[in-house]
């Protein structure tokens, strides 16, 4: 028997197929998010099973998490992404005490007990200015790929000050900076600093290391370094950071199947 974790995020649906006996990952898959979320999630499950030649009948439990978890109709149950990211990161980095997750539409700071259970958390889900959506906006405005942002930021000599707390107004601010002659390098560095400063504000002064960075934004070059500089603590990026929520969901599924 196998178990599945599905993380239905705002930008992508991620899946992890797990052997509940060994807790080994059997397969992973993901798809871009869309309007037919139930079908997309079902397609991710099918992709997981195709990768290892298994059948639906061999899946004993499915846990869904994330932004769209309640629309995943193949799920046995749902669990919040706070719990799932904590469980997934703790599995990969057992000593972690603080998890910082930045996704497409929200960001979170999760503090863990020594055993990996959630102690408390802070979350920004009211404005995209502190999320991956802001990076997508600036990349589009500058006509570059997300993968180019780290290179641009590293070449900055004077990061631009991005003061707007709303991504819509921040985009207008970026247009103004370009018109005034600010370089793309300084604008990208300023945007990365702006996002990370919001996360640092949520984290507060009493940050308990080790700190692990996860979520899709952790894949964007330069973000870990910007976050580390503002937090004043070493920051480690989780292995496969876009999958930690789905991994945590699969681990919870394994426990409930037992």
SSE layout and pairing:
Elements: E1 2-8, E2 12-18, E3 25-32, H1 37-52, E4 59-65, E5 77-78, H2 81-92, E6 98-102, E7 107-112, E8 118-124, H3 132-142, H4 149-154, H5 167-179, H6 184-203, E9 211-214, H7 223-231, E10 235-237, H8 244-257
Parallel strand pairs: 1-4, 4-5, 6-9, 9-10
Antiparallel strand pairs: 1-2, 2-3, 6-7, 7-8
Overview of this structure, please?
This protein has 258 residues and is an alpha/beta fold. The protein has 2 domains: 2-87 and 243-257, ATPase, nucleotide binding domain (Nucleotidyltransferase, domain 5, 2-Layer Sandwich), CATH 3.30.420.40; 96-237, Nucleotidyltransferase, domain 5 (2-Layer Sandwich), CATH 3.30.420.40. It is built from 8 helices and 10 strands. It has helices at residues 37-52, 81-92, 132-142, 149-154, 167-179, 184-203, 223-231, 244-257, and strands spanning 2-8, 12-18, 25-32, 59-65, 77-78, 98-102, 107-112, 118-124, 211-214, 235-237. The strands form 2 sheets. The chain has a 5-stranded mixed beta sheet. Strands 8-7-6-9-10 form a 5-stranded mixed beta sheet, sandwiched between helices. Strand 7 (107-112) and strand 8 (118-124) form a beta hairpin. Helix 3 (132-142) runs parallel beside helix 5, helix 3 (132-142) packs antiparallel against helix 6 and helix 6 crosses helix 7 (223-231). It starts with a strand and ends with a helix.
